[in-house]
Amino acid sequence: RDAVKKLVHEGVVTYVKRRGNYVTEISAEEAGQARQVRVVIEELAARELAGKLRPEDERALMAAIDDMRHAARLEDPVRVRQADLAFHRTVCQASGNPFIAKVWAVLEPSLYTLNAIADPFGVGDLRRMSAWHERLLDTLRDSDPNQAAALFASHAGAHGTPGSSASHE
Fold first, then answer.
1. Closest alpha carbon to 62 in 125, 133, 122
2. pTM over 0.85, yes/no
3. Alpha-carbon distance 69 to 24, whole Å?
4. Is the Cβ–Cβ distance between 22 and 16 less than 8 Å?
5. Helix 77-94 crosses helix 55-73 at what angle (to 10 degrees)?
6. 24-68: per-residue pLDDT in tens?
7. Of 7, 26, 107, 159, which cross-links 13 as Cys (Cβ 3.0–4.6 Å)?
8. How far apart (Å, rounded) are the C-alpha atoms in residues 75 and 80?
9. pLDDT value at position 19?
10. Contact (CB, 8 A) for 38 and 107
11. Helix, strand or coil for residue 21?
Protein backbone atom coordinates (compact mmCIF):
# COMPACT_ATOMS: atom_id res chain seq x y z
CA ARG A 1 0.00 0.00 0.00
CA ASP A 2 2.87 2.38 0.81
CA ALA A 3 4.45 1.67 -2.56
CA VAL A 4 1.22 2.54 -4.36
CA LYS A 5 0.91 5.75 -2.33
CA LYS A 6 4.43 6.67 -3.37
CA LEU A 7 3.62 6.00 -7.03
CA VAL A 8 0.53 8.22 -6.72
CA HIS A 9 2.68 10.96 -5.17
CA GLU A 10 5.19 10.65 -8.02
CA GLY A 11 2.42 10.90 -10.61
CA VAL A 12 3.00 7.43 -12.04
CA VAL A 13 -0.31 6.13 -10.72
CA THR A 14 -3.64 7.95 -10.47
CA TYR A 15 -6.05 7.12 -7.65
CA VAL A 16 -9.77 7.39 -8.39
CA LYS A 17 -11.95 7.21 -5.27
CA ARG A 18 -14.04 4.00 -5.09
CA ARG A 19 -12.61 2.85 -8.41
CA GLY A 20 -8.97 2.07 -7.66
CA ASN A 21 -5.53 2.88 -9.00
CA TYR A 22 -4.60 3.28 -12.64
CA VAL A 23 -1.40 3.92 -14.54
CA THR A 24 -1.28 7.64 -15.25
CA GLU A 25 -1.69 8.58 -18.89
CA ILE A 26 0.78 11.23 -19.94
CA SER A 27 0.05 13.52 -22.84
CA ALA A 28 2.60 14.69 -25.37
CA GLU A 29 2.19 18.18 -23.88
CA GLU A 30 3.05 16.92 -20.37
CA ALA A 31 6.05 15.04 -21.75
CA GLY A 32 7.27 18.24 -23.42
CA GLN A 33 6.78 20.21 -20.20
CA ALA A 34 8.79 17.65 -18.23
CA ARG A 35 11.59 17.88 -20.80
CA GLN A 36 11.58 21.69 -20.46
CA VAL A 37 12.14 21.37 -16.73
CA ARG A 38 14.83 18.74 -17.29
CA VAL A 39 16.71 21.05 -19.66
CA VAL A 40 16.80 23.83 -17.05
CA ILE A 41 17.82 21.50 -14.21
CA GLU A 42 20.59 19.79 -16.15
CA GLU A 43 21.87 23.02 -17.67
CA LEU A 44 22.20 24.54 -14.20
CA ALA A 45 23.74 21.40 -12.69
CA ALA A 46 26.35 21.19 -15.47
CA ARG A 47 27.17 24.89 -15.15
CA GLU A 48 27.72 24.46 -11.40
CA LEU A 49 29.77 21.27 -11.73
CA ALA A 50 32.01 22.07 -14.73
CA GLY A 51 35.64 22.18 -13.73
CA LYS A 52 34.83 21.23 -10.12
CA LEU A 53 34.35 17.50 -10.54
CA ARG A 54 35.54 15.62 -7.45
CA PRO A 55 37.27 12.25 -7.95
CA GLU A 56 34.46 10.33 -6.22
CA ASP A 57 31.85 11.95 -8.46
CA GLU A 58 33.91 11.22 -11.56
CA ARG A 59 34.15 7.56 -10.46
CA ALA A 60 30.36 7.40 -9.98
CA LEU A 61 29.77 8.91 -13.43
CA MET A 62 32.23 6.47 -15.02
CA ALA A 63 30.48 3.60 -13.22
CA ALA A 64 27.17 4.67 -14.75
CA ILE A 65 28.80 4.81 -18.20
CA ASP A 66 30.30 1.35 -17.64
CA ASP A 67 26.84 0.10 -16.63
CA MET A 68 25.48 1.53 -19.89
CA ARG A 69 28.16 -0.29 -21.89
CA HIS A 70 27.48 -3.56 -20.10
CA ALA A 71 23.72 -3.24 -20.58
CA ALA A 72 24.23 -2.41 -24.26
CA ARG A 73 26.30 -5.57 -24.73
CA LEU A 74 23.41 -7.50 -23.15
CA GLU A 75 20.97 -5.58 -25.40
CA ASP A 76 19.04 -4.53 -22.30
CA PRO A 77 17.42 -1.13 -22.93
CA VAL A 78 15.82 -1.00 -19.48
CA ARG A 79 19.22 -1.26 -17.78
CA VAL A 80 20.66 1.29 -20.21
CA ARG A 81 17.87 3.70 -19.22
CA GLN A 82 18.50 3.05 -15.52
CA ALA A 83 22.23 3.73 -15.91
CA ASP A 84 21.42 6.84 -17.95
CA LEU A 85 19.23 8.22 -15.17
CA ALA A 86 21.87 7.28 -12.56
CA PHE A 87 24.41 9.33 -14.51
CA HIS A 88 22.18 12.41 -14.56
CA ARG A 89 21.16 11.94 -10.92
CA THR A 90 24.84 11.93 -9.98
CA VAL A 91 25.46 15.14 -11.93
CA CYS A 92 22.61 16.83 -10.08
CA GLN A 93 23.78 15.55 -6.69
CA ALA A 94 27.39 16.54 -7.38
CA SER A 95 26.46 20.05 -8.52
CA GLY A 96 26.91 21.40 -5.01
CA ASN A 97 23.41 22.89 -4.98
CA PRO A 98 21.13 20.72 -2.82
CA PHE A 99 18.02 22.20 -4.44
CA ILE A 100 19.06 20.87 -7.85
CA ALA A 101 19.27 17.37 -6.38
CA LYS A 102 15.88 17.79 -4.67
CA VAL A 103 14.16 18.95 -7.85
CA TRP A 104 15.78 16.11 -9.79
CA ALA A 105 14.53 13.59 -7.20
CA VAL A 106 10.98 14.82 -7.78
CA LEU A 107 11.37 14.90 -11.58
CA GLU A 108 13.25 11.62 -12.14
CA PRO A 109 10.32 9.21 -11.64
CA SER A 110 8.32 11.18 -14.20
CA LEU A 111 11.22 11.11 -16.64
CA TYR A 112 11.51 7.36 -16.26
CA THR A 113 7.78 6.98 -16.79
CA LEU A 114 7.79 9.33 -19.78
CA ASN A 115 10.57 7.32 -21.39
CA ALA A 116 8.86 4.04 -20.58
CA ILE A 117 5.45 5.16 -21.78
CA ALA A 118 6.65 7.07 -24.83
CA ASP A 119 8.86 4.29 -26.15
CA PRO A 120 10.51 1.93 -23.66
CA PHE A 121 12.92 0.62 -26.26
CA GLY A 122 13.45 3.91 -28.09
CA VAL A 123 16.89 4.65 -26.76
CA GLY A 124 18.43 4.40 -30.20
CA ASP A 125 21.65 2.51 -30.72
CA LEU A 126 22.39 1.29 -27.21
CA ARG A 127 26.14 1.35 -27.78
CA ARG A 128 26.08 5.04 -28.72
CA MET A 129 24.54 5.99 -25.38
CA SER A 130 27.76 5.39 -23.46
CA ALA A 131 29.80 7.38 -25.99
CA TRP A 132 27.40 10.31 -25.70
CA HIS A 133 27.69 10.22 -21.89
CA GLU A 134 31.49 10.06 -22.10
CA ARG A 135 31.29 13.32 -24.06
CA LEU A 136 29.11 14.82 -21.30
CA LEU A 137 31.64 13.70 -18.69
CA ASP A 138 34.50 15.19 -20.71
CA THR A 139 32.78 18.57 -20.76
CA LEU A 140 32.39 18.42 -16.98
CA ARG A 141 36.12 17.79 -16.64
CA ASP A 142 36.79 21.00 -18.58
CA SER A 143 36.43 24.29 -16.79
CA ASP A 144 34.03 25.99 -19.23
CA PRO A 145 30.64 26.15 -17.47
CA ASN A 146 28.93 27.64 -20.53
CA GLN A 147 30.05 24.82 -22.81
CA ALA A 148 29.00 22.19 -20.26
CA ALA A 149 25.63 23.87 -19.73
CA ALA A 150 24.98 24.04 -23.49
CA LEU A 151 25.87 20.39 -24.10
CA PHE A 152 23.77 19.14 -21.18
CA ALA A 153 20.83 21.33 -22.23
CA SER A 154 21.04 19.96 -25.77
CA HIS A 155 21.18 16.40 -24.48
CA ALA A 156 18.30 16.87 -22.03
CA GLY A 157 16.13 18.54 -24.65
CA ALA A 158 16.47 15.69 -27.11
CA HIS A 159 16.69 12.84 -24.62
CA GLY A 160 13.58 10.80 -24.08
CA THR A 161 11.94 11.86 -27.30
CA PRO A 162 11.05 8.85 -29.42
CA GLY A 163 13.40 8.73 -32.38
CA SER A 164 15.78 11.27 -30.83
CA SER A 165 18.80 9.01 -30.81
CA ALA A 166 20.27 10.78 -33.83
CA SER A 167 20.91 13.80 -31.64
CA HIS A 168 23.14 11.68 -29.46
CA GLU A 169 25.83 11.25 -32.07
1. 133
2. no
3. 31
4. yes
5. 170
6. 677 778 778 888 899 999 999 999 999 999 999 999 999 999 999
7. 7
8. 9
9. 80
10. yes
11. strand
